[in-house]
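As a representative case, we now present a protein record of this kind.
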Amino acid sequence: MSQVIPLDLPAGLGSDVAGVVDRVGEGVTAFDVGDEVLGASITPSCAQSALADPAVLVAEPASVPGEVAGSLAGPGITAWEVLDKLKIA
């Protein structure tokens, strides 16, 4: 796996995130402070805060509790990749 995803140790854990945007970078227009989002982070997600590219975030559905939303990104991305490889998506 280290050939695919190089990792400097010690390292943080996790990449799936769900939470509330507390800051947005310059030029970000997809989300505002206070928006609830889910997706994948650039920095470890088992933390109080995480950094994410807005291109890999989506709005968190209001009907999905936060503790569930935080576990959706990994399986969702995997499903999307399979559908894309099968030319279904």
Summary: Strands lie at 16-20, 36-40, 57-59. The chain has a mean pLDDT of 88.
